[in-house]
Backbone:
């Protein structure tokens, strides 16, 4: 706990307020400062903790940006694979349609030959 020394009231205020009011004000202000103020050592401890937190946050930001970069690279690779798969599906579909056309043409030719043979 921080020890606040008793405040010295300026002579001008002591004359204007009187000794009793000046002493009461000094006691009141001292008690308020004791309740709400912190010592310099506590303040330095808080600042050092805040510095540590600031460095930790900076490290976390760097790590997060690195993770985002890695994720974007992986998404790019996945997109490339999807593009390759799409291209392969298009090629296979074209071959399938071409094979169906050839089979249909062969069947039509065989049916035409079968009608002439009868």
Residues:
């Amino acid at each position: 706990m921080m020890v606040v020394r008793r405040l010295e009231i300026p002579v001008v205020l002591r004359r204007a307020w009187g000794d009793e009011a000046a002493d009461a004000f000094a006691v009141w202000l001292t008690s308020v400062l004791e309740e709400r103020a912190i010592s310099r050592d506590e303040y330095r401890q808080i600042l050092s903790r805040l510095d540590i937190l600031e460095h930790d946050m900076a490290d976390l930001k760097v790590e997060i940006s690195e993770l985002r970069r890695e994720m974007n690279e992986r998404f790019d690779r996945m997109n490339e694979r999807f593009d390759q798969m799409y291209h392969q599906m298009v090629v296979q579909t074209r071959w399938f349609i071409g094979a169906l056309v050839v089979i249909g043409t062969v069947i039509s030719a065989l049916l035409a030959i079968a009608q002439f043979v009868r």
